[in-house]
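Sequence only, no structure available. Ideas?
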Amino acid sequence: MNNLPHYVFIIDDNACLNMPPKEGDVGYDVYAYSPPTIVGQIDSEGFWDRVDYIEYDLSIKIDGFQAINSPLEDIYTLVFPRSSISKYNLLLANSVGVIDSGYRGSLKVRFKYIFQPEDLSLSKEGKIKGVVNMDKIYNEGDKVCQLVFQKHFHPTIEFTSSIEDSERGGGGFGSTGV
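Reply:
I predicted one. Tokens follow.
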């Protein structure tokens, strides 16, 4: 199923990465190694003024760099949210994460928290405050994202003052009738 060249995972104690469960599946599910770290500003009463992000350490290190003079065989990793994210008040903070083949640190993922009306209240000072609903975020041991592996492709780049016309031309958003 996996014909990647000499790809090495270094998985620390208790971390978990699942192979794709079914033939044709591309994503490798990854579990949160640690409890969520909520970063933001909290007041003295335990309400959040803001949540900058919620971070999960995956405790996985990846080596996808092929040092044998073959840059086209380098593997980089894409981090996608799992489809289960629709059950949570979370959005992957950078939409899709890119892990370069030379990165050697522990993988982490960050999510934006989406406050719901029931999470919010008005303080005595008239400020909107929030609570993070812990049932609506991932917790330690939950599958939090999926990894997809890709080979590097570095095209030849040529700078020019014009490009050839095409049938579509400059038609952008909605130009195909959708």
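The first strand starts at residue 8 and ends at 11.
Hope that gets you unstuck.
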